[in-house]
Design goal:
five-stranded mixed sheet; globular; D-Maltodextrin-Binding Protein, domain 2
C-alpha cells in the first residue's frame, strides 16, 4: 500500500464523501492507505501541499480568492467538489413557527467567523431583505467555543455547521429554524485541492477513482448506512445525531455524483464574495479550478 497524505480544513460529517472515501475501503482498492490530518494555524494546508507533506486537502474554492486578489499564480487548484451547498444552520433558543431572516435583526447571534460561512450568512440575509448590520454579532471563537458559549446561555441564535445544531436539538437546548444552504441554493462551497504537479501523477488518478466511488456511495446509501461506515471517524457524535445530520444534508441535495466544480455553483460563489467586498472582480472558474481526469 502506498500512503496518501490527506488534510482537512475542518473535520465534520459535512465532508462525508471524503470520510467515506477513506473509511469505505475505496482507497485500499486502489492500493492507497490514507494518513489523515486536520490543519491548524501552525500547520496550514498550503504549506503542506507546497512542501509535498500533504498530497491533497479538503478546502474551498473561495480560499483562492485572497491570492487571486494579490495577482499571484495559483499553484494550488481545486479539482473536485465535496459540497454543493452551504452546510450551516441557525439554531434558536425558542421555536419559531414562521422564521424570517429579519428576525435576526436586533438579536445577539453567535456567528461563525470563518471567512466563507460569514460571507454566505451576510448574503443570504441580503437576498431575503434583512440587514446583517442590524445583528448584534458575537464572535465567541472557534466552533467548540461557540457551541460552549451557546450552551452556557450566550446568544439568542447560533450559526453552526452540522452536527452541532442537531446535537443542540437532541439535548433540548435549541431549535433549528433555518438552513443557509436551503436559502442560498447551489454554491461551490467545499472542495478538494492539490498542486497542479500532483494532479498529473498516477496517485492522483487512483485517488479520483476512489473518491468518485466514495461520493456515489454517500449519494446512494441511506444516512444510517453511511453512519455505520464513518461513525468511528466521528466518535464524539451520538449515532442518532449523526444519522439525522447526514439525512438533513441528503435532503438538502448537498452532494452531487458529478464531482466537477460546475460553473453555476461557482458563479453563485462569486456573487456571495462580491457582495461581501472580499473580491474586487469576478475571477473565471479556470483561475483556480481544474476539471479532474481519471
Amino acid at each position: 500500500m502506498a500512503q496518501i497524505n490527506i488534510m482537512a480544513l475542518r473535520h465534520s460529517a459535512f465532508y462525508a464523501p471524503l470520510l467515506m472515501t477513506i473509511k469505505g475501503g475505496f482507497l485500499s482498492k486502489q492500493g492507497l492507505e490514507a494518513n489523515y490530518t486536520v490543519a491548524t494555524p501552525d500547520n496550514p494546508i498550503d504549506k503542506n501541499l507546497l512542501a509535498g507533506t500533504a498530497h491533497l486537502s479538503q478546502s474551498a474554492p473561495a480560499v483562492s480568492f485572497a491570492s487571486l486578489e494579490r495577482g499571484e499564480d495559483q499553484e494550488i487548484v481545486h479539482f473536485a467538489s465535496i459540497n454543493d451547498r452551504d452546510g450551516f444552520y441557525l439554531t434558536a433558543r425558542e421555536s419559531y413557527k414562521d422564521f424570517k431572516w429579519s428576525d435576526l435583526e436586533g438579536q445577539n447571534v453567535l456567528v461563525d467567523h470563518l471567512f466563507q460561512p460569514l460571507a454566505t450568512l451576510r448574503y443570504v440575509m441580503h437576498i431575503n431583505g434583512a440587514d446583517f448590520n442590524q445583528v448584534k454579532v458575537i464572535d465567541a471563537g472557534d466552533v467548540a467555543q461557540m457551541d460552549a458559549a451557546f450552551r452556557q446561555g450566550q446568544g439568542t441564535f447560533v450559526h453552526q455547521q452540522g452536527p452541532a445544531p442537531q446535537q443542540l436539538e437532541q439535548d433540548g437546548l435549541g431549535h433549528m429554524v433555518a438552513s443557509v444552504g436551503e436559502a442560498l441554493g447551489p454554491i461551490a462551497f467545499s472542495s478538494l485541492c492539490a498542486t497542479r504537479d500532483w494532479l498529473k501523477t498516477d496517485m492522483a488518478a487512483s485517488f479520483l477513482e476512489a473518491y468518485q466511488q466514495g461520493m456515489d456511495a454517500v449519494i446512494n446509501l441511506s444516512a444510517a448506512q453511511i453512519a455505520d461506515t464513518i461513525h468511528d471517524f466521528l466518535p464524539g457524535i451520538h449515532r442518532e445525531v449523526l444519522v439525522k445530520t447526514l439525512d438533513d444534508y441528503k435532503k438538502l441535495d448537498t452532494w452531487k455524483s458529478n464531482i466537477s466544480i460546475n460553473t453555476n455553483s461557482y458563479d453563485n460563489l462569486l456573487k456571495v464574495f462580491l457582495h461581501s467586498g472580499t473580491i474586487s472582480r469576478s475571477y473565471p472558474l479556470s483561475s483556480c479550478v481544474v476539471t479532474p481526469t481519471y
